[in-house]
Amino acid sequence: MTSIEQVATLATFGAVWAVLAVGHNLADHVIGQTDRQAADKGAPSATDVADGVSPRRGWGACLAHVAQYHLVMIALVALVWAVLPLELSCPGLVAGFAVSAVTHAFFDRRWPVRWLLEHCGSKGFAELKAGGMNGMYLTDQALHQTALLVSTLLITAL
């Protein structure tokens, strides 16, 4: 790879990362999910399941949110791609958005985030809901950003 190709790859990575970071905040907090989806996407709780509620409850809301979220993300990437001379490929876009969709749906079921915190010695952080802090939400956002980093690498490199 020549020096100019390396610079182009790095610029593309930076542009894609910026778009996905902005898109994530817009889609996760403003126009990518309804109040109902946000409330129901993690259902049911462990107590609900123990009481006989189907463990599949909540998947409809979760998948509807993931679909809305990714429509916003795709629209923003398409807008930036139309304006900037980015070297993107269909396989890279498909792989990147697939990783984003699968991980987003998984993390938004909430139990994986709680499980991770409990098994990393941070059960107290999982329970934190005071002083403007929410451990589950902050961990959810950190995991989404990490998944978006992988998505950015795939979109840029493939």
Record the SSE blueprint.
Blueprint (H helix, E strand, L loop, with lengths): L2 H27 L5 H6 L5 H5 L8 H25 L6 H18 L3 H9 L3 H5 L1 E2 L2 E2 H23 L1
Antiparallel strand pairs: 1-2
Helix pairs in contact: 1-4, 1-8, 4-5, 5-8
What are its keywords?
single chain, 158 residues, mainly alpha, two-stranded antiparallel sheet, 8 helices, 2 strands, 3% strand
Quick structural overview:
The protein is mostly helical and 158 residues long. It is 75% helix and 3% strand.
Walk me through the structure:
Helix 1 runs antiparallel to helix 8 (135-157). It is built from 8 helices and 2 strands. With 158 residues, it is an all-alpha fold. It has a two-stranded antiparallel sheet. The mean pLDDT is 94. Helix content is 75%, strand content 3%. The longest helix is centred in the first third of the chain and has 27 residues, at 3-29. A hairpin with a 2-residue loop joins strand 1 (129-130) and strand 2 (133-134).
Count helical runs: 8
Order of helices and strands: HHHHHHHEEH
- Strand fraction equals under 5%
Query: How many beta-strand segments?
Result: 2
